[in-house]
Amino acid sequence: MTPLTVLLLVANDSEATERLGSQYQSAGLAEAIAAAVNRNVVLTIATRNPEKHANKSYSRDAIIHSMRAERAPLVDRLLLVMGAEKLRTTLSTSPIGRLINSLSATDPSRIFARAYRQKPANASGHFDLVIAFDTAAIRTAWSFNKRDSTTAAVFGDAAAIAYLRDNN
Amino acid sequence: MPKPHLLYVAWGYPPARGAGMYRALATANAYAEAGWRVTVLTATRETFASLTGTDELAEQQIHSAITVVRVPFDLSRGETNLSRWTRLRVASPLLWSFLKALAERAAFPEPRYGAWRVPLVSAAREVHRRSPVDLVISTANPNVDFLPGYYLNKSHGIPYVMDYRDTWHLDMYRGSRIGSRSSRSARWERKLIKHSSEVWFVNKPILEWHAKEFPADAAKFHVVTNGFDPEYLQGQVDRISSAAGLTYGYLGTIYGPMPVRETLEGWRQARKLSPILAKSTLEIHGRLGHYSVPNAEILELIESYAGDGVRYMGIVSKTQVAEVYSRFDALLLILGQSTYITSGKVFEYAGTGLPIASLHHPETASTTVLQDYPRWVAAADVSVDSFANAIVELSTMALDSDSNAQDEARESAAQFERLRQLEPRISEWTRQVMSEGGNK
Hints:
Chain A is α/β, with parallel strands linked by helices. Chain A has helices spanning about 15-25, 30-35, 75-80, 85-90, 95-105, 110-120, 140-145, 155-165, and strands at about 5-10, 40-45, 60-65, 130, 150-155. In chain B, helix 6 crosses helix 7 and helix 11 crosses helix 17. Chain B is α/β, with parallel strands linked by helices. Chain B folds into two domains: about 5-75 and about 110-225 and about 420-435, Rossmann fold (3-Layer(aba) Sandwich); about 230-415, 3-Layer(aba) Sandwich (Rossmann fold). Chain B has helices at about 20-35, 45-50, 55-60, 85-90, 95-105, 115-130, 145-155, 185-195, 205-215, 230-235, 260-275, 275-280, 295-305, 320-325, 345-350, 365-370, 385-400, 405-410, 420-435; strands spanning about 5-10, 35-45, 65-70, 135-140, 160-165, 170, 175, 200, 220-225, 245-250, 280-285, 310-315, 330-335, 355-360, 375-380. In chain B, strand 6 and strand 7 form a beta hairpin. Chain B is globular.
């Protein structure tokens, strides 16, 4: 049987190292997923800070894919020049401002999606399952499923394991 | 004569986990036992698996004659399968949540539960269409549970009872009103109470507060206190305490403004005051917070006292409580201050016959429950010193008790059995419905 290909998208690296580190101490995440489906698993962790995930218990047997590019995507460079971050900080002080932020190009989920588009993992390949570790990674995971409905997309590692158990 | 038909509405019904579930389970069972045909409207199993965690053993306690109708509850907020997320939700989860809340509020002014109104009321109508209902009893919260009774009363004149396990517009900790009297939810409450046949409250202070708010309806208000279910305590082994070390226990949910820190500090101090307590342990069993995952902050606080013999033992099914109480020499009753909160566990604690230390403000409704209980000590106030003294006094009580003490205490608590609280209301409704011929 071919191995199950899984992509874990991590936007918030600090939260991931802390939470995954405490959750997968004895067995790595790849092993936990493999146990849920009783099948070999190839796990790729996509992150902008690969060094944070190297040699961690949870990343055992996983491929760590760096999304860090030589140059940031054009939109991000433009936003930087325009001082968009300052505007975002100002807007975040009010509910309506936070709503505008959530719909703007400075929203973390859009920044993460642009970064991933610029440096995708396994560019020509297919993933059976994409896991958004945090909210900022949801848009990217969701797009995988919209592009190819055979790619399942879930939010959270625990939900991913439950999903695999239910669907195998 | 055909059996009268009760429609019982409870969102939190087995296999839901949560303290309020037991009142719902016991009430429906008691009516079934009294000869009623009972149909329960509740949420689906998936709802509880996703939100509260499930208690399958409690589900097995449902009376075999009860028909359970499970009404789908919108779980989209917690949806983790992203293929089910709409484009709008992905574009802005914030905007999606706002619109969702708006739609829920439009249906019924109760956050997260409002959207249940439509499927719940139509399920009630369907039950009545298939088999006419004689009485509706709803238990809240959520308050949306009250709506099937109201609508069946409006369309078919069926009487309904509102069973307030909790309160709607009374802040039980502050004793103040929540929201304005002209708010939409306040108007709903006024309307529901006005058309109801009876309203049940869990204690007198709550009834009195509502009687002041709704003087014209006060005559139909009744106190139906919580109680303990003796069947769950069957198999509890009497405890012979030994000076080699005691096991103190807390069994219940820890949430809200409970003096947990003072209790743990008091425990630490008591261990310094008493050589026996220095060899003793404190076990905390039950839920930390309202959700299936333990509240991280409370868990961290408890674990920081591991060196003082404090252990968190996890969630307990009601069907395992006898086994858990058998481990204890004495019980700590930790409660937030409120003249309105009795707490369900005070009755069960008394039912065990074990020595109890009340670690809460003296002006808490449960104080009046325990005042005649023979094995009881109470902290003078909420402070580390008072709690430590009460914990030390409790150890003396546990060790000085003779072999009959637990039995005697248990006997004195028999008045708190849940069925005894429900019995007058069951008899009254059976008499009323039967005298009207039943099955409208």
